[in-house]
Amino acid sequence: MSWFLVVPSVFAVLFAVGGTAAIRTGWILPFQRRRVHRPQLFGWAQVMMAVAFATQVGGQLLDEREPGYVLGVIALLALLGGLVLAVVAQRPSPDR
Question: Are the CB atoms for 79 and 52 separated by under 8 Å?
Answer without folding.
Answer: yes
